[in-house]
């Protein structure tokens, strides 16, 4: 591989080469792809790894696409070894043509999927047919920026003409947006998520795609809450979530999945997050549960199938946002970061400004330890009276901002 960054693009504006990113030059991936080529098959790295390389984003997963059938893929993988240790082939989605190759010695995992077309779909699940044509595989993908194929040498095939969109950082459906969405209604949320995570809303949102999402939003009712929750939590965690969620609200998509939700408080929350300073560096204390709480949907935890921990966090920050618990007590009862989240949501809800002094109060509480234990009051006090007295002394200690000593507290018995 000899191409450099200056020769990635052709004179006609088409992406021609992905360069030499570390994921592509990886010895295990090179060995795997060469094995397919030696067996007479095509194999390409496809989708996000190519897109994110051009966007200078971290690549965590490399997906591969091939004209080899699943049984051929399995055979090739299992023929490989490294230092006498064999590779493993895991049939993670064999019915859809996907086999996961597991390299020995922690060399990584690679999902390899046979070229395919959607033979039949109900908008949620697709029955696929395998194909020998890469063009069929490209046309069944969702967005033009997700349909680039890079071979082992880094040479790129742009089959759907996505280079213009990639250069413009534009998220656009392949072909007819209505048809793409009707194949899988979750693509509505993926449309907005990619706009947020890639920051492309700054260049505008594709009108045809946005119109199709608005028109077909009712189709999300047939998508499982688990799938919707996975997309929404990824979207709302992004720094640029507010403007994109605003577009979802205006198009009616947000209300289809979270009735009663509004982006206004969330936008204020994110603005407050960005004002948080540590050692002169901007470190936004963003938290998915707190951001979801800011949307205002009463049953957000159930609608998005949140984990029990996230569901509890949503209820806690909403509860404390509506109370007047002082910052030092929040820090003592919930720990530093949870207290910060409670306070940020309170400020956002009540249109209050960022208060840096309150963070010191939170830290004071988070580092405080109640000096009295039950043994200090026994045997003179026991049973329910013991618990009540401990709570009473703790309340006095908190009210005094933790300044009352153990000896002074015991004198109040």
TrEMBL record:
Molecular function GO labels: CCA tRNA nucleotidyltransferase activity; metal ion binding; nucleotide binding; tRNA binding
tRNA nucleotidyltransferase/poly(A) polymerase RNA and SrmB- binding domain sequence ranges: 205-261
Highest taxon in the source lineage: Bacteria
Keyword field contains Acetylation: no
Keyword annotations: Magnesium, Metal-binding, Nucleotide-binding, Nucleotidyltransferase, RNA-binding, Transferase, tRNA processing
Coiled coil: none
Cofactor requirements of the protein: Mg(2+)
Enzyme Commission numbers on file: 2.7.7.72
GO biological process terms, semicolon-separated: tRNA processing
Keyword flag Metal-binding: yes
SUPFAM superfamilies assigned to the protein according to its UniProt record, in alphabetical order: Nucleotidyltransferase, Poly A polymerase C-terminal region-like
Pfam family, any one: PolyA_pol
Poly A polymerase head domain location: 43-172
Family the entry assigns: Belongs to the tRNA nucleotidyltransferase/poly(A) polymerase family.
Protein name: CCA-adding enzyme
Species of provenance: Octadecabacter ascidiaceicola
């Amino acid at each position: 591989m000899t191409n450099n960054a200056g020769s990635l693009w052709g004179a006609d504006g088409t992406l021609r080469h992905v360069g030499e990113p570390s994921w592509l030059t990886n010895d295990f991936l090179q060995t795997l792809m060469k094995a397919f080529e030696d067996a007479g098959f095509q194999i390409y790295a496809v989708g996000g790894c190519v897109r994110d390389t051009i966007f200078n984003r971290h690549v965590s997963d490399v997906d591969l696409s091939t004209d080899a059938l699943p049984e051929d893929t399995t055979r090739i993988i299992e023929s490989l070894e490294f230092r006498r240790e064999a590779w493993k082939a895991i049939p993670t989605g064999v019915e859809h043509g996907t086999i996961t190759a597991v390299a020995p010695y922690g060399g990584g995992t690679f999902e390899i999927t046979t070229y395919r077309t959607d033979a039949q779909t109900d908008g949620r699940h697709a029955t696929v047919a395998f194909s020998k044509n890469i063009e069929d595989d490209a046309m069944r993908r969702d967005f033009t920026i997700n349909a680039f194929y890079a071979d082992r040498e880094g040479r790129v095939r742009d089959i759907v003409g996505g280079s213009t969109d990639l250069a413009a950082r534009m998220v656009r459906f392949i072909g007819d947006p209505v048809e793409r969405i009707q194949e899988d209604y979750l693509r509505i949320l993926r449309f907005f998520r990619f706009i947020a995570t890639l920051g492309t809303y700054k260049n505008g949102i594709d009108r045809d795609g946005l119109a199709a999402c608005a028109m077909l939003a009712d189709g999300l009712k047939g998508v499982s809450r688990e799938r919707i929750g996975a997309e929404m939590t990824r979207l709302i965690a992004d720094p640029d979530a507010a403007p994109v969620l605003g577009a979802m609200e205006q198009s009616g998509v947000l209300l289809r999945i979270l009735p009663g939700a509004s982006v206004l408080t969330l936008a204020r929350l994110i603005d407050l997050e960005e004002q948080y300073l540590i050692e002169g560096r901007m470190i936004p204390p963003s938290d998915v549960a707190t951001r979801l709480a800011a949307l205002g949907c009463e049953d957000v935890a159930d609608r998005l199938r949140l984990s029990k921990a996230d569901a509890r966090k949503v209820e806690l920050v909403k509860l404390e946002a509506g109370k007047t618990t002082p910052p030092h007590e929040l820090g003592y009862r919930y720990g530093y970061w949870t207290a910060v989240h409670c306070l940020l949501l309170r400020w956002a809800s009540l249109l209050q400004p960022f208060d840096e002094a309150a963070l010191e109060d939170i830290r004071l509480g988070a580092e405080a330890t109640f000096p009295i234990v039950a043994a200090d009051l026994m045997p003179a006090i026991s049973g329910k009276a013991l618990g009540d007295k401990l709570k009473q002394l703790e309340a006095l200690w908190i009210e005094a901002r933790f300044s009352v000593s153990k000896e002074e507290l015991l004198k109040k018995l």
